[in-house]
Design goal:
Length: about 220
């Protein structure tokens, strides 16, 4: 079989992983508490866009789609991000309100996988976050029909200009089609890279109001 040069180069890619050993017995009983600890270490390590996560959803045909979103809050119920409810992800979640998230901090050889049901956050919480955004981002959220086909960049600029003229100097108000989602986890896995791909994996699974955790084979 002829193996092209690109394939050979891809085979060579991938650093040797190394990290502090991860054991279920040393993890907090609550995966949200454990996540906050991992996240703070990633912040302290000054990892760029540390709150970036892959979000996976499923559409009406059962086909998955994934994209990057930004984690904006971790509360006692789950993981919160904000988007356009009429976007592709919003349409997917309206039909199948379940999702998966992955946070990956490559310099630390760590990732966290999250799965669970999804709910919209309270309107007041979406209002508060929308009010904290830069004005340009607020106007963009109002003007852009996210995930819809548009004729050109110039058309988008025209819509933004129209919103700016309509608002004038007033503070933009959050549109009803834009807000937050919360992923309520029933499974959380912490993955720590280790040499020879013998990675440490600790999985939490919800058991009523409690969590059970175990070690998974790498």
């Amino acid at each position: 079989m002829l193996i092209n040069r690109m394939t050979k180069e891809l085979w060579r890619l991938g650093a040797q992983y190394q990290g502090v050993p991860l054991d279920p017995a040393d993890c907090d009983a609550d995966p949200l508490v454990e996540f906050r600890g991992w996240f703070q270490l990633a912040v302290d390590a000054q990892i760029p866009t540390v709150n970036a996560m892959t979000l996976a959803t499923v559409d009406a045909r059962g086909r998955p789609a994934a994209r990057i979103v930004l984690l904006k809050e971790v509360d006692d119920r789950g993981f919160v991000f904000f988007t356009n409810y009429q976007s592709r992800k919003g349409s997917d979640l309206a039909q199948h309100p379940f999702a998966a998230l992955v946070a990956f901090w490559e310099p630390m050889h760590r990732q966290v996988r999250i799965e669970g049901a999804v709910e919209q956050v309270a309107p007041a919480d979406s209002d508060a976050y929308f009010a904290s955004r830069p004005r340009g981002s607020q106007i963009g959220a109002i003007a852009s029909p996210q995930s819809q086909a548009i004729a050109s960049r110039e058309v988008l600029a025209q819509w933004i200009a129209e919103v700016e003229r309509a608002i004038g100097g007033a503070a933009p108000i959050r549109p009803a089609h834009w807000g937050g989602y919360r992923v309520i986890p029933d499974m959380v896995e912490f993955w720590q890279g280790q040499p020879s791909r013998l990675h440490d994996r600790v999985r939490y699974r919800r058991d009523g109001q409690a969590w059970r955790r175990d070690r998974l084979a790498p």
